[in-house]
Amino acid sequence: MTEVELSKNIVEKKPSLFGMIFSPSEQFERIRERPVIWIPFIIVTLIGLAAAVIGVLGIDSSAQINQLGLPAEEAAEIEASMKVGMIIGGIFLAPIAVLFSTVIYFAIAKIAKSEVTFKKMLSLNIFIYFIAGIGQLINTAIIVAINGDPKIMLTSLNSFAGADGALGGILSSIEIFGIWTTVLSALGLHKVAGLSKTASWTIAIVIFIIGLIFGAIGGAANEMLEGMSQF
Q1: Which of 112, 134, 161, 206 is packed most tightly, with the most Cβ within 10 A?
Q2: What confidence tens digit (pLDDT) does each residue in 2-16 have?
Q3: Is 175 helix (H, G, I), strand (E, B) or coil?
């Protein structure tokens, strides 16, 4: 089979979510020619829901609630509300994250004069989020299995450092699946949106750094809230 025939064979096939694990470049080429939305979108949403359900069933939050000193009935209601909220959050997390990242990347691509369509960019971000969703599911399952701290991703640097505050937030954001999705974002922007390699990597790295900043802010805020709750 010639190189031209092989390339034609690749783009005639629909992109595969599981192909993102071993052959992301091939999937991006397929997305560029034949973007798909609904089935991958449903799958990544179900992965997020599964992670939320595992977290709800396996992580006991009663100890933290009991520290509030509330009556048993009121504490039970709060715990039930928290669990329902986690499940609802699990349903909407993936759609919101995918749509938000799509809007950001699409706007950047248009500023860079790319001719990529919104549909292609949406498909791209759904496939990238699949890796992030798998990471969340794996981390949640292992944390529940070992009764670990749900606030610390086991695949992050903070699982080794155990830092608090802003540093803890930064180290929690430096995580295997997060780095993986950053690499995929750079590759996808180049393959699907047609941006240069330099521009693609610059955009992906800048967004990763912004994520670190938000992680630091979140870590500092959590530390402040925990300090206030002790008074």
Answers
A1: 134
A2: 544 445 555 568 999
A3: strand
